[in-house]
Design a protein that fits this description.
- The structure is a single chain.
- The chain has about 325 residues and is of the alpha+beta class.
- The chain has 2 domains: about 210 residues, Pnp Oxidase, Chain A; about 70 residues, Helicase, Ruva Protein, domain 3 (Orthogonal Bundle).
- Helices cover about 25% and strands about 25% of the residues.
- The strands form 4 sheets. Strands 2, 3, 4, 5, 6, 9, 10 and 11 form an 8-stranded antiparallel sheet that branches. A 3-stranded antiparallel sheet has the order 1-12-13.
- A hairpin with a 7-residue loop joins strand 4 and strand 5.
- The longest helix has 18 residues.
- It is globular, with a radius of gyration of 24 Å.
- The protein binds flavin mononucleotide (FMN).
- The site of flavin mononucleotide has 21 residues, from strand 3, strand 5, helix 2 and helix 3.
- The site of flavin mononucleotide (FMN) has 21 residues, from strand 3, strand 5, helix 2 and helix 3.
């Protein structure tokens, strides 16, 4: 007999049929008059995380919301403001979650501060919504309306508060009530203390007080979690044998040879990533006219990778 009960799956299952921790973000978009409008959201997650040429987030929003309407009007720049715990923040965030208020009504009593993001200085010709000063990090983004031809949804009009078909699968208006937006990340803005905690070594006590939301439940309350204390858990390294790494290395490119001392530096790379790492080394060798990779070349490659990582931050 199972130790579980079978729970019915209903609409909004993430908050009605499960316990599902989510970020608490305030989304800034551009209202019709060019002012910044801010709404509260939680269904906002990483979407493209590697290998796509750009990085993207996914936002799930009621398609009649101000946020969706601003994007669907063609004002495609948006900022995702990640909120920490703070005095009175729960109340102020929930106040931005009331459906149906116009941006002007909403922003009249906005409980946080707004400032320019970092994109606008680099590209003043592209209007951008302001960002929330109290956020611990902000992602300034652009809606990728080309994906799934979602640009065809720009300018569609709501009928009695809903959109009639057609609906898209994953970008644009996806149901009568909902929309999905794939948002290219143009910049990640980070408060200095937390920037240092990423760049100069991670310490649990220097983490932002991430405000975790468990959604709207009991038809009454939004439920927030207190920030948990962070504890690291070491991923046990499973070292491969030199001969197994040699097997993969010898099959990567016939014109680039790896010495044993070079391959020793790859013994703790998980097997599943080994072909990608080896291909990266071969690409570097070809670019630099190298036919044998020794431990010295491996150090150069690792150093280059570390520098590139630093540059993107
Ligand atoms: C903490 C919190 C999280 C929310 N998450 C979402 C969400 O992920 N998607 C959504 O459509 N509405 C969500 N809502 C409801 C929206 O805030 C509400 O629809 C609001 O009207 C949106 O603001 P806007 O119309 O200015 O875009 C959330 C509300 C709160 C308070």
């Amino acid at each position: 007999m199972s130790s579980f009960k079978d729970l019915r799956i209903v609409d909004n299952f993430y908050q009605t049929s499960s316990y599902y921790p989510m970020p608490t973000v305030m989304i800034s978009t551009l209202a019709e008059d060019g002012s910044t409008s801010v709404g509260s959201y939680s269904l906002c997650f990483p979407y493209y995380i590697a290998g796509k040429g750009y990085y993207a987030m996914l936002l799930e929003a009621r398609n009649s919301s101000n946020t969706a309407q601003h994007l669907l009007a063609g004002r495609k720049t948006i900022a995702i403001n990640f909120m920490p715990e703070g005095p009175g923040y729960h109340k102020k965030i929930v106040a931005q979650g009331w459906p149906g208020d116009t941006p002007a009504e909403k922003m009249k009593n906005f409980g946080f501060h707004l400032e320019d993001g970092l994109c606008i200085a680099e590209d003043p010709a592209t209007p951008r919504p302001k960002v929330v000063s109290e956020a611990y990090q902000v992602m300034e983004c652009t809606w990728m309306s080309d994906l799934e031809n979602a640009y065809e949804d720009i300018g569609r009009k709501l009928e009695d508060g809903c959109y009639p078909p057609p609906y898209r699968s994953f970008n644009g208006i996806t149901t009568q009530y909902g929309a999905h937006f794939i948002l290219r990340i143009d910049k990640v803005l980070m408060k200095p203390k937390f920037y240092d905690n990423i760049i100069n070594g991670v310490k649990g006590r220097l983490w932002p007080n991430v405000l975790v939301c468990h959604g709207y439940r009991d038809s009454k309350n939004f439920w927030f979690a207190r920030t948990p204390r962070l504890v690291p858990e070491l991923l046990p390294i499973r070292n491969a044998t030199l001969s197994s790494v040699r097997y993969a290395a010898d099959r990567t490119d016939p014109n680039v040879h790896f010495t044993d001392d070079a391959l020793e530096k790859l013994l703790n790379v998980p097997r599943i990533f080994l072909p990608t790492v080896l291909k990266g080394c071969v690409a570097w060798a070809k670019e630099n006219g190298v036919t044998e990779i020794t431990a010295r070349e491996m150090d150069i490659i690792n150093d280059k990778r570390a520098k590139e990582k630093g540059k993107t931050k």
